[in-house]
Amino acid sequence: MEVSAAISLSRTLSLLSPIAPTSSSIPFLPPVSLSRRCHLRHRRYTLSRSFCLPPAVPFSSSSTQNEDEEAELVEIEDSELEEEYIEDDDSNSIDVESLEREAELVVREFSDSLSRQLTIEEERSSPKEAQVKEKRRNNTSKNIPDHLLPKVAIVGRPNVGKSALFNRLVGGKKAIVVDEPGVTRDRLYGRAFWGNYEFVVVDTGGVLTISKSQADLMEELAISTTIGMEGIPLATREAAVARMPSMIEKQATVAVEESSVIIFLVDGQAGLNAADVEIADWLRKHYSDKCIILAVNKCESPRKGISQASEFWSLGFDPLPVSALSGTGTGELLDLLCSGIKKVEEPEYLEEENYVPAIAIVGRPNVGKSSILNALVGEDRTIVSPVSGTTRDAIDTEFTGSDGQKFRLIDTAGIRRKAAVASSGSIPEALSVNQALRAIRRSDVVALVIEAMACITEQDCKIAERIEKEGKGCLIVVNKWDTIPNKNQETTVFYEEDVRRKVRSLSWAPIVYSTAIAGHSVEKIIVAAAAVEKERSRRLTTAILNQVVREAVAFKAPPRTRGGKRGRVYYSTQAAIRPPTFVFFVNDAKLFSETYRRYMEKQLRTSAGFAGTPIRLLWRSRRKMEKSDGKDGPTKMQENFKDREKKLAVPA
Asked: How many CB atoms lie within 10 A of CB 421?
């Protein structure tokens, strides 16, 4: 009697007690922490509450069915927990050093692939005239700042080959070369060397000192008063065109005054011109104290070159036949040039300069890019005119901020739509757009300038996509802010919301409002650019990064597939900066949808910042981590648990 009562009591207690896992149903799992146990109990309690089971159920067929369902749920839960423990085991048994090396290889492969893709796109969009392989020389330049080197200016009338000779001396395609007059307008600087001498060559626009009619000036300088100038009155257009020659001549005058050697270039095929005589008189009258070299260009044949150059003896200088296209006579030209400059040795006390970030100023035509550059440097570095397409070359200018930090500012030409550029048939404009895109590639931070009244256009969105694809830091500059009427405190808020909604690819970019023509708030552009560069160069520690990733996964786990598979993150690391690039080692990259990847990027930005710079997340598929010491040997996780048990053991 007592035995049967004891048996019935044990059965009743077994029904009321929770189901205990046995060694036959669930494999051995390593011990878990107290927080994980609490989470497990809460999860089981939630599952049991979902079936609304009372604390005590009579022994019947329905209760048996409920017990089976509950046991099945617990078995599913235990299988999921087993996968999590296996993942923890893998994370403790991985080789961090090998993963770090693999992450660097992943970033290098991605960068090479992206560079090849962008190069192919650039070659497709560039005109055939520009598809010439650039010849590069070995860089043997010394660590001497540009302002300490002597300068050599190239002057002459339009279309005599000044830009071609400039490219020949600096050893690259830095200046736009087209068989059209008036292509170069601003001063363009480039370092060159010959033997032990190093100097800076300055390319200038064509000097026009002879009074000409309005039509002749427009034809000589290739100026258009229709493209991009529809909203400007006709009188303003004509006045801008009339001022263009004097502005180009002013730029050339500045280059001559700051140079110690002047290369006076003439056209040997066209012969002596009245403009050549006026330029020679101007140089002889005002700059006779400088070394002036008369170079007769386009003398490809050495025999004919002598006869072609003899015509220019009347200018009062010794003519030297050269060919910028083939390089004939450039050696003698460089010898004469070096005889007129002083050899600059590298100063011993000069400290190695830190990294100088480059800021490219890009945007559509006539949005005020050149005005921003002039307002920042405090001088008329580039020509500012309502004439669309005034800036042709990418102009590099050194700039030092108020805090002493150095920057390299790059002014670029306006970027119009590909269809508009192709329909115009203008080769200089196509080359200018290519140079602007190259300026984005060689910059660190891009200032995307938009016009306040026009706000965001389709072309602005395309430029923004290119900036994001290049991985450059960016800030949006809303120029001509004074043209917005009836502004109040809410105007900026509504305007920013409109910009964010239209330019989703740059939702992380800061916005700066300025009026460059009056110099208002232009200093905020440099402050914002410096902050963006710091964020772009920032590196997260692996511990903080993995903590952010774990919290993001705990808050929102990767979704399961129809087959029941779920993505798991084994390890994450920041493998590169500029831009910040993170590599995630996962079980299968295909299990992480594009939506979840955007979610992870958003969580990284929310937790770690990175304002003003794009971040790249690279997902690397990896098989289940193998045990370290074979099948029979203990795993790293088991060794860790043994160490923990030794530390927690209380001495007797």
From this structure: 19
User: How many separate domains does the chain show?
Assistant: 3
Amino acid at 296: V
Q: Whole-prediction pTM value?
A: 0.76
CB 136 within 8 A of CB 171: yes
User: β-strands 358-363, 406-411: how paired?
Assistant: parallel
Q: Are 448 and 529 in the same domain?
A: yes
Count CB neighbours of 47 within 10 A: 14
Q: Which residue has the higher pLDDT, 44 or 409?
A: 409
241-255, 338-352, 551-565: range with lowest mean pLDDT: 338-352
Residue 268's SS3 state is: coil
> 270 with 329, same domain?
yes
| 399 and 447 share one domain | yes
For β-strands 406-411 and 395-400, DSSP reports them as antiparallel
Would strands 445-451 and 406-411 be described as parallel, antiparallel, or unpaired?
unpaired
Mean pLDDT (whole number) for 538-552? 94
Identify whether residues 515 and 436 lie together within a single domain.
yes
* CA 412 vs CA 125, 362, 458: distances in Å: 17, 6, 19
Residue 239 DSSP SS3:
helix
pLDDT digit string, tens, across residues 177-228: 887 877 888 899 999 999 889 999 999 998 765 445 555 555 555 555 444 4
Q: Are residues 412 and 511 in the same domain?
A: yes
Q: What is the CA radius of gyration of the chain?
A: 35
